[in-house]
Design goal:
- The complex is a heterodimer.
- Chain A has twelve helices and twelve strands.
- By secondary structure, chain A is α/β, with parallel strands linked by helices.
- In chain A, strands 6-7-8-3-9-10-12-11 form an eight-stranded mixed beta sheet, with helices on both faces.
- In chain A, α4 packs parallel to α7, α5 crosses α7 and α7 runs parallel beside α8.
- The mean pLDDT of chain A is 86.
- By secondary structure, chain B is mainly α.
- Chain B is built from twelve helices and two strands.
- In chain B, strands 1-2 form a two-stranded antiparallel ribbon.
- The relative contact order of chain B is 0.13.
- Classes of the chains: A alpha/beta, B mainly alpha.
- At the A-B interface, α2, α4 and α7 of A face α8 and α9 of B.
Chain lengths: 332, 344
C-alpha cells in the first residue's frame, strides 16, 4: 500500500446498541478505524463480536428500532454518513459503498429475475437507458464468470447454484463501480472449492476496479492471502489492529494469540494439537466494565477486571488494547 | 400449465359429485319441503300424501338423488299424484343444467331465482371485498413499516374492537346512528333498508347510497383480520435478507416496499383472498337480512326456513363450484407470482 493514497473513510467511536425484550445488547462499543483508497481491510472475530453490526451501521442498514446508533461518526469523503438524510444515504448505498452478504441463497429476491435485480441498481444510480442497463448487466455477469450471461438474465435466483448466486451478488454490488466494497463473510455459506473461486474472483475484480474493500470473516486463514491490514474485534471492541504480516508474526493481544492457536496450519507439526479458547464469549446484555476478554485470558491481571484498556499504538502501525505485554507476561 | 388446469378440472368432477351427494342427503333430512309449501298454513294431511307422490319424495333417497342429478325424463313418474306412475318426467337434471323448480316460488326455475339475486349480492360483496382488500393493504403495509409506532398501536386497538364485535351489532349501530339519529337531528342521513327508494327507482345513485351501510358493516368486521394478516406477512418479508440486499443497493424505499417486499408478501395474501372470493357468492346472510338487501344470503336463509330444497341445493352447488374454480385460479396466480412454483 503506497503512502500517497489518502484516507477516505474514517470511523470514530461508533456505538450501536439493540433494545430487545431481554435487555439492551451492547453490540458495538466505540469502534474507530480508517481506510485508504484501494486498501483491503480484514475484520476478524468470532460470531457475535459486532463485525457485521459495525459495517451495517456504517451503511445505516441496522433496523431502527430495535437497533440504535448511539454515538460516533462515519466520515466518508466529506460527509458524516450518520448525519445524512435517508434519501442522501440512498445515493451512497450501492453507488459509493456496496455490500455483499453471507448467504447468497437468501440474499437475492426469489420472485424477481436476476436481470431485473442487476439492472435496478444501474437504473437507480445512473442515467442509463433500459437497453444500456441490459447490456451492462450482460457485461457484469460475464465479468464475474457466469457463462451464457445474455440468456441467464431472464432466469430467477433458484435456477442458479450457491456459488453462481454469490457471483450474481458480486456483480450487483460492483455494477456502479463503488469506491468501497464491504464483504460480510461472503464465502462462509459456500463449500470449500467454491470459497476459493469466489476469493480469487473478488481479488481479481478489486484489481480491475481499484476499489477499497472491507472483508469480514471469522477465518484468519482467508485473511492472510488478501488483506493489507487486519482489525481483530471482540465483544464489540477493536482489540488489535495491525498490518497483515505483523499480526501473524507478532500478535500483541491475548485474544489474537488464542485465535491463531486455534487455526490449523500446514506448517505446524502434527503432534502440536489445536488449542481452543477456554470459556464462552461474554454476555453482550451487560454494559462492559473492564477488559471484555479478561474472564478467558491466560495473562489476566487485577487491573483487567477493573478497567478496559484503550486501543493504543504498541509498535509502529501495530495497535493493541491490552494492559499486558504478552512477551514478558507483565504489565506494559 | 394447460395440462395442469385440465387435470385439476377433471379431479373436480368426482369431488363435486361427492359434495352434491352429501348435501343432498343432509338437505332431505334437514327440512320438510311440504310443511307449508310456501304459504302460511300447514299443509293438510290429504294434500301431503299427494304432494309427496307428485314431488317424488316417496322414492328412496338414491332415486331422488339420481333424478336430481340426471333428470327423470327417462322414467315414469306420478305427476298428478293419484298413486299411479303413468307420465314421463319433465326434469332434465343438474348435469343438463336443470336444478328443478322452486317450491316456494311455485313453478319458477331455480336458476332463474338464483340469477335474479346473484347480481345484487355480487355488487354488494365485491364492493365490500375491494374496500377490505385495498384498505387492509394500505393499513397493513403502513403499520408494518411503522411497527409499534403510535399509529400502529392505535390502529391495533381499533381493529381489535372491530374484530370482537358481532356483525349484527355493527349493522344495527350504524343504522341507529347514520339513519335514525341523523334523520332526527335533521342531518343528511342514509337509508336503512332495501336496494333503492321505490319512489325514485333503481338508479345507480340510489343503489350506491343504499350500499353504504351494509358495505361498511361487512368491511368493518373482516378488515381487522385482513389488515393484521397483511401486516404480519409484510413484517416477515421485510425482515428477509433480500430486503437488506435491496436496501444496500440504495434502491428507493417505495421500490423496496412495493416491488421487492409486496411481491413476496402477495402469495399468502392471494391465498386468503382466493378462499374468500367464492364464499362471497353466498352473500352476507346476516347483513342482507338486517338491511333487507335482496341477495343470495337472504334467498339461502329463506330457502332453508321454508324447506325450499331445490333452491338451497342450487345455491350450495354454485358455491361449491366457485370454490373449486377459485382454487385453480389461485394456483395460476401463484405460478405467475412465484417463479419457483411450477405445476408441470
Amino acid at each position: 500500500m503506497s503512502e500517497s493514497k489518502h484516507t477516505f473513510l474514517q470511523v470514530n467511536d461508533l456505538k450501536t446498541r439493540f433494545h430487545t425484550p431481554e435487555g439492551t445488547v451492547y453490540a458495538v462499543n466505540g469502534v474507530s478505524f480508517s481506510l485508504k483508497e484501494g486498501e483491503t481491510l480484514a475484520v476478524v472475530g468470532e460470531s457475535g463480536c459486532g463485525k457485521s453490526v459495525t459495517m451495517m451501521s456504517i451503511l445505516r442498514l441496522i433496523a431502527i428500532p430495535p437497533g440504535e446508533i448511539v454515538s460516533g461518526e462515519v466520515i466518508y469523503r466529506d460527509d458524516d454518513l450518520l448525519k445524512l438524510s435517508e434519501s442522501e444515504m440512498e445515493h451512497i448505498r450501492g453507488r459509493e459503498i456496496a455490500m455483499i452478504f453471507q448467504d447468497p441463497m437468501t440474499s437475492l429476491n426469489p420472485v424477481l429475475t436476476v436481470g431485473r435485480q442487476l439492472t435496478e441498481t444501474l437504473r437507480t444510480h445512473t442515467p442509463m437507458t433500459p437497453e444500456q442497463c441490459r447490456e451492462r448487466a450482460v457485461t457484469l455477469l460475464d465479468w464475474v464468470g457466469i457463462p451464457d450471461a445474455a440468456n441467464r438474465l431472464y432466469e430467477y435466483p433458484h435456477q442458479f447454484s450457491g456459488g453462481m448466486r454469490q457471483r450474481v451478488m458480486i456483480a450487483m454490488a460492483l455494477a456502479c463501480t463503488p469506491s468501497l466494497l464491504i464483504a460480510d463473510e461472503p464465502t462462509t455459506a459456500l463449500d470449500v472449492t467454491i470459497q476459493a473461486q469466489i476469493i480469487e474472483l473478488v481479488k481479481r475484480l478489486k484489481q480491475d476496479v481499484g476499489m477499497a474493500m472491507i472483508w469480514i470473516t471469522h477465518d484468519l486463514g482467508v485473511v492472510a492471502g488478501m488483506a493489507d491490514r487486519v482489525i481483530v474485534m471482540y465483544a464489540g471492541f477493536i482489540v488489535e489492529e495491525s498490518e497483515v504480516d505483523d499480526l501473524y508474526e507478532n500478535p500483541r493481544h491475548p485474544y489474537t494469540i488464542a485465535l491463531l492457536q486455534a487455526l490449523p496450519r500446514a506448517d505446524r507439526r502434527r503432534e502440536k494439537n489445536l488449542k481452543s479458547i477456554q470459556g464462552a464469549p461474554p454476555n453482550m446484555l451487560t454494559e462492559p466494565v473492564g477488559c471484555p476478554f479478561a474472564p478467558r485470558c491466560e495473562f489476566v491481571k487485577e487491573i483487567c477486571i477493573r478497567e478496559n484498556p484503550l486501543l493504543e499504538i504498541v509498535d509502529g502501525k501495530h495497535k493493541s488494547a491490552c494492559w499486558v505485554d504478552v512477551k514478558t507476561g507483565g504489565l506494559r | 400449465m394447460t395440462r395442469y388446469i385440465i387435470r385439476r378440472l377433471l379431479q373436480a368432477i368426482p369431488l363435486l359429485l361427492v359434495i352434491s351427494l352429501i348435501l343432498f342427503v343432509l338437505m332431505q333430512n334437514a327440512t320438510d319441503p311440504l310443511a307449508t309449501m310456501g304459504g302460511r298454513m300447514p299443509t293438510k294431511p290429504e294434500d301431503r300424501a299427494r304432494l309427496t307422490r307428485q314431488l317424488g319424495l316417496d322414492k328412496p333417497i338414491y332415486i331422488q338423488y339420481l333424478y336430481w342429478l340426471v333428470g327423470n325424463d327417462w322414467a315414469k313418474v306420478d305427476l298428478d299424484g293419484d298413486g299411479v306412475a303413468e307420465t314421463s318426467g319433465k326434469r332434465h337434471g343438474v348435469l343438463r343444467g336443470d336444478f328443478g323448480t322452486s317450491i316456494v316460488q311455485t313453478g319458477r326455475q331455480v336458476t332463474t331465482v338464483i340469477f335474479e339475486r346473484l347480481p345484487n349480492t355480487l355488487i354488494l360483496m365485491l364492493t365490500a371485498e375491494v374496500v377490505i382488500v385495498l384498505g387492509a393493504l394500505f393499513v397493513g403495509i403502513y403499520s408494518a413499516l411503522r411497527q409499534y409506532s403510535l399509529f400502529d398501536n392505535i390502529l391495533t386497538g381499533i381493529l381489535f374492537i372491530g374484530y370482537s364485535m358481532p356483525i349484527f351489532f355493527v349493522a344495527l349501530a350504524t343504522m341507529y346512528i347514520f339513519s335514525i339519529n341523523f334523520q332526527r337531528w335533521g342531518l343528511p342521513h342514509l337509508p336503512t333498508v332495501g336496494m333503492f327508494d321505490p319512489q325514485v327507482g333503481k338508479t345507480t345513485g340510489q343503489i350506491m347510497l343504499h350500499m353504504v351501510l351494509p358495505v361498511f358493516s361487512i368491511s368493518f368486521i373482516s378488515f381487522a383480520a385482513y389488515s393484521r394478516y397483511i401486516r404480519s406477512t409484510m413484517l416477515e418479508v421485510l425482515g428477509q435478507d433480500y430486503i437488506r440486499t435491496a436496501r444496500s443497493k440504495g434502491l428507493p424505499r417505495r421500490e423496496i416496499t412495493y416491488i421487492h417486499a409486496l411481491k413476496n408478501a402477495s402469495l399468502p395474501i392471494v391465498t386468503i383472498v382466493g378462499l374468500d372470493l367464492p364464499l362471497l357468492l353466498g352473500g352476507a346472510v346476516v347483513t342482507e337480512r338486517i338491511f333487507a338487501w335482496p341477495g343470495m344470503g337472504r334467498l339461502f336463509i329463506d330457502g332453508i326456513d321454508r324447506g325450499d330444497t331445490p333452491v338451497v341445493m342450487g345455491v350450495l352447488m354454485l358455491i361449491a363450484v366457485a370454490v373449486v374454480v377459485f382454487q385453480i385460479i389461485t394456483d395460476i396466480v401463484y405460478a405467475w407470482l412465484d417463479p419457483r412454483i411450477r405445476f408441470d
